[in-house]
Amino acid sequence: MTKMNYAKENLWQIEEVGFDSRYLGKTESIMALGNGYIGSRSATEEAYVGERRDTFVAGTFNKFDENEVSELPNIPDIWWLDVIVNGEHFTLEKGAVTGFSKRLNLKNGELTRDFVWEFKTIKLKFKFRRFISMARRHYLSNLVEIENLSAEKVSVQVRSGVNGQVTNSGSQHFNEGEKGLVDGKFLQMMPQTIESKIDFVFTLAHKVTAENLTARIEMGRRQIFMNYFFEIAPNESAVIEKRMSVRTSIDNDTDNHDVASLRELSIAEMKGIDALSFDELLAESAEKWAEIWAKHPIVIESQDFHDQLAIRFAKYHLHVMTPAHDPHMNIGAKGMSGEGYKGHTFWDTEVFMLPYFNFTHPEIAKSLVTYRYLGLDGAHKKAAENGYLGAQYPWEAANPTDGEVTPVWGAADIVTGQSTKIWSGFIEQHITSDVVFGVKQYIDVTGDLEFTQEKAYEILFDTAKFWGSRLEYNADKDCYEINDVIGADEYKEHVNNNAYTNYTAHWNVKYALELAAELRENEPEIFARLDDKLDLTTVLPDLADKLDKIFLPQPTADGIIPQDDTYLSKKIIDLTKYKAKDGVDGLFHDYNLEQVNEMQITKQADVLLLMFLFEGLFDRELKLKNFEYYEPKTTHDSSLSLSTHAILSADLGKVAESYEFFKKARHIDMGGFMKSSDDGIHAASLGGIWQMTVFGYGGVRMIDGKLRIEPHLPEAWTRLTYGFDYQGQAITVTVTHDSFVLSKADNGCDVSFISNNGNYVLQNKLTLSLGGKS
Q1: What is the DSSP code string of 630-697?
Q2: What does the sequence similarity comment in the record state about its family (predicted)?
Q3: What would the mean pLDDT of 635-643 be, rounded to a whole number?
Q4: CA trace torsion 763, 765, 768, 773 (10° rounding)
Q5: How much of the chain, in percent, has pLDDT values that exceed 90?
Q6: HSE-CB for 716 with a 13 A CA cutoff
Q7: Distance (Å, whole) CA 551 – CA 497
């Protein structure tokens, strides 16, 4: 029986022990490989029913049909490798398999698979190794070693090449393209995406070490491959090394994007590394990984070793799925580990993943926020289509200029049997202020003046302009409302005055007005440029008139902030059985979304997310009352939910409860439930693991533009060491249950921060008690 295995002796490794084809998706996703340019599920070389052989190149969106939305196309399968032994097709679903282990080394990004396979008189030991290079953007490699443990010589046939017969769950995004053999050694296939007209060049070479080796090239429809024939004597081995390159006509690291140039460049690259072995190329990649791990390492001394492994697992995936090389691209909700959400970017980036990069890799963060600046045209397009002004960011984004790409229809309605309409693309509008939140945090943490002046200001004003046009005046209440929306809790559709939406829109407008006053006084030339482009002279007075009349839901007599106008009047049901189940959406086996809409059921943090992100607006007592009211009504059906609850409960002194949330979040992908990750890893949840560690237990936060550090460790942790960048300074913090020590290089600027209502300055090293006394 297959299961996930984690060992205290190796906290850089995740392992599957035993093979069961019913659970292929688990390790395909959580052991996905990538380098930000290319990402690939770790499907096996040989094929199985139920597998998902997905590999993606960032930013290469295509529409299969004019009635469908853009998605990242599943590129032709380059890992494909069939083995036939004595005329028998090798598969783990027949014969006996012993010693099966599939392992991902998080430290260097190498995937390995080992086992012994016996069938009839055949007994072979297989070892598979593969990696996607962090040192060479376009390079992938695979090595297979087959050792003959049989009593007699075996005859082996290996078919290996490029298989363009794969699809995105049936949607074929490529024409077949030219294919052929170059210099008698290099296989090439050159398909093009059907709608977006992006050219791809796949280049493969093999190195085979075997006895009595012969070979021939073959082609089929959408296929080109080599057929190798050889023998393996008893106690001898054969080795097949596969070297692969992927390039496209939108690559930003080459000037010549015609297919002929890309073909020549790929061949030259392959020839240039011909003398390097598999292990030498892997070592190159490992060196780049070492640089990543050396930047602000996190060390958790815990009673449960899974905590340390979890933060490494999270950081690994945050880097393999982030296209740091090109600001025209962003992070998909499943990274590049599966077809889930079609590779689209959500608010997940700004609220859950961008903070990691803001505080640890500001150069990557800059690329991610620049994507939103480049997306202003698409945001203008969406606003105009809806009859609004300014920039309304799409709920789902692909190419930054595309505008809205959310599908219209989704899962089956359990009651009607019809497809459920996905309203998020129409009325889930808090994404616009979420983008501003991410940009503001980037500015506060990095102090990047150039980005601020050239790009950020425009985003901040243009989004406020949208909200000004979106507000609806209620004459009876003499206030401006935001009606017919979906809030952060996506189980409430078509509601009025969602707390998260209204408060963040108010903050967006208020911030823009404060910024305008500052620019007018201190940087009039910049204000004049923005005024000329955005008509601020007309827009700002209108925003100023509306600001104080934007309706902000206020606490009831019991201290509860209504999630929306009607939430608190809805029916309450016991959610115990749904919260106890593995997996999500069990609720919808009993109810449809229309029924859930009429109950006090919350999918993920809404009011509580508001209190976490904008904690300066609410006192501790109010946060505590709302936490105790809303959490029992929250199913946590979204992987985004647990991290918010973990951080907020830690802030409120409920550290034991917080740690339970942490462990549940840790288990979303790493846990033993073998169907949790079939559609891909949960990217936002992995950002949440870092946030729970550094924001929650490390206590780091930006409050109204000021750095705050107030740690609180779970009982299971004896020490936490982490680091972060702030205003160009690298800071390291070590936390115990009694105190915390901050340090930085003494050749930089002093760092001011607040802790437990005290103001402090870090010059070189500073020790504070957990009560804030030095």
Answers
A1: HGGGB---STTHHHHHHHHHHHTT-HHHHHHHHHHHHHHHHSS-TTTTTT---HHHHHHHHHIIIIII
A2: Belongs to the glycosyl hydrolase 65 family.
A3: 92
A4: -50
A5: 92
A6: 16
A7: 7
| pLDDT, mean of residues 687-709 | 96
Of 442, 449, 445, residue with least CA distance to 727: 445
Residue 578 pLDDT level (bands cut at 50, 70, 90): confident
Q: Is 595 annotated as a binding residue?
A: no
One-letter amino acid at 282 equals: L
Task: Give the pLDDT of residue 265.
Answer: 97
For the stretch 78-116, pLDDT in tens is 999 999 999 999 999 999 999 999 999 999 999 999 999
Nearest of 440, 38, 58, 441 to residue 246 by alpha carbon: 38
Nearest to 763 by CA among 729, 740, 735, 739: 729
130 within 8 A of 284, measured Cβ to Cβ: no
Rounded distance, CA 525 to CA 530, Å? 9
- The answer to whether 717 is annotated as binding is no
604 marked among binding-site residues? yes
Whether the Cβ atoms of residue 320 and residue 335 lie closer than 8 Å to each other: yes
What is the Cα–Cα distance from 312 to 318, expressed in whole angstroms? 10
Matching residue, tokens 């830690």: 650
d(CA 232, CA 14): 32
Q: Which residue is associated with the tokens 């989004």?
A: 463
Token reading at 395: 């709920």
Longest dimension (CA), the chain: 91
Query: Rounded distance, CA 58 to CA 336, Å?
Result: 8
54 and 80 in contact (C-beta within 8 Å)? no
How is the chain split into domains, by residue range?
3-269
The verdict on whether residue 654 carries a ligand-binding annotation is: no
> What residues act catalytically?
490
Q: In this structure, what DSSP letter does residue 705 have?
A: T
Pick from 673, 668, 700: nearest CA to 685: 668
CA distance 106 to 104: 6
Question: Would the pLDDT of 581 be above 90?
Answer: no
- In this structure, whether the domain defined by 3-269 belongs to CATH 2.70.98.40 is answered with yes
Q: Give CA–CA dist 733/767, Å, rounded.
A: 10
Q: What is the pLDDT of residue 611?
A: 97
pLDDT tens digits for range 150-173:
999 999 999 999 999 999 999 999
